[in-house]
C-alpha cells in the first residue's frame, strides 16, 4: 500500500499538512479535498491515494487550514475560522504546489467529499480537467437566527463552533450555476442513507451539470461511506472516472 510521502503546501501563510502518492513526473494527478470536519488522514483518503497510485496516477491529499487537530499531522489555523473562500484558497495552493513537487499540471483531476466537493466545484479552477463529487451538498441552508442579538459563532451538529461568517460566506456561492458553467466531466456519487446530505442534492447537481456526467447512487451507503464495501465501490468509481478523463 502506498502510504504517501509527507510534503509541504503553503496557503496564505498557513502550513497545510499534505501527502503525495504515486509516480509524479508526467503522470496524471488528482488533488483531493476532504469534508468539513475531516482531514487528509481518514481511511477514505489514504485508501484513495493508494488506489490512484496503483493505477499510475499521482495523488495529493492535504488537510485544510484549521483541520486535523485530533490527528498526527494537523494544519495551521483555527477551525472556527473556516470559510468556503479560505478552503478554495487552500485548494488552489495545493494546485500551485504541484510543479514544485515534480508533478506536471497538464492532466489534473479533483475529488471532493461533502464540503470538500463544494470547494473543488466552487473554485472552478481552469487547471482541473475532471471532477468527482462524493456526498456533496449543492447548498447549505442558512441558519434561522435566534431572537435578540445573533451570536458571533454557530454550532455545527457535532458541537464544533464556526464563526457566523462561515454561513454568510458559503451563501455567496451558487453551486448549481458553478457545476453548469464549469463544463468539466463530472462524476457524482451519493448514498441512499446519507444522514447529513439528502440524496436530492446529488440529483440537483446532476441535473445542472453538462455532459459528460455520471450519477451513481449507492444503495444503503451513508454520508461517509463508512461500510468498507460502499467505500470501495465509491472509490473505485472515482479512480475509474479519473482514469478515463485525466489519465
Number of domains: 1
Q: Which CATH class applies here?
A: Alpha Beta
Alpha-carbon distance between the two ends: 21 Å
Rg value: 17 Å
Low-pLDDT ranges:
none
Strand order of the largest sheet: 1-2-4-3-5-6-9-10
What name goes with the CATH superfamily?
Alpha/Beta hydrolase fold, catalytic domain
Pattern of helices and strands = EEEHEHEHEEEHHEHEH
Helix content: 25-40%
Number of strands: 10
Described by the principal axes of the CA atoms, the overall outline is globular
Biggest sheet layout: 8 strands, mixed
Number of helices: 7
Approximate strand percentage:
15-25%
- On the 0 to 100 scale, the average pLDDT is 94
Name the structural class: alpha/beta
From the coordinates shown, what is the CATH architecture?
A: 3-Layer(aba) Sandwich
CATH topology (level 3) name:
Rossmann fold
Amino acid at each position: 500500500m502506498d502510504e504517501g510521502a509527507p510534503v509541504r503546501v503553503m496557503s496564505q501563510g498557513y502550513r497545510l499538512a499534505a501527502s503525495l502518492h504515486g509516480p509524479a513526473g508526467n503522470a496524471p494527478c488528482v488533488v483531493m479535498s476532504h469534508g468539513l470536519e475531516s482531514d487528509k488522514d481518514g481511511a477514505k483518503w489514504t485508501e484513495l491515494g493508494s488506489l490512484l497510485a496503483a493505477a499510475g496516477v499521482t495523488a495529493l491529499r492535504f488537510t485544510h487550514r484549521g483541520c486535523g487537530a485530533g490527528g498526527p499531522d494537523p494544519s495551521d489555523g483555527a477551525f472556527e475560522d473556516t470559510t468556503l473562500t479560505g478552503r478554495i484558497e487552500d485548494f488552489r495552493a495545493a494546485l500551485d504546489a504541484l510543479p514544485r513537487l515534480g508533478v506536471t499540471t497538464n492532466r489534473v483531476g479533483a475529488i471532493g467529499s461533502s464540503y470538500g466537493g463544494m470547494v473543488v466545484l466552487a473554485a472552478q479552477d481552469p487547471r482541473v480537467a475532471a471532477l468527482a463529487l462524493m456526498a456533496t451538498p449543492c447548498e447549505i441552508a442558512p441558519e434561522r437566527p435566534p431572537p435578540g442579538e445573533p451570536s458571533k459563532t454557530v454550532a455545527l451538529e457535532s458541537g464544533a463552533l464556526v464563526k457566523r461568517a462561515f454561513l454568510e460566506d458559503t451563501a455567496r456561492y451558487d453551486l448549481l450555476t458553478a457545476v453548469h458553467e464549469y463544463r468539466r466531466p463530472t462524476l457524482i456519487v451519493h448514498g441512499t442513507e446519507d444522514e447529513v446530505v439528502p440524496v436530492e442534492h446529488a440529483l440537483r447537481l446532476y441535473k445542472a451539470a453538462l455532459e459528460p456526467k455520471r450519477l451513481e447512487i449507492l444503495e444503503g451507503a451513508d454520508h461517509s461511506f463508512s461500510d468498507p464495501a460502499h467505500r470501495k465501490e465509491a472509490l473505485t468509481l472515482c479512480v475509474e472516472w479519473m482514469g478515463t478523463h485525466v489519465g
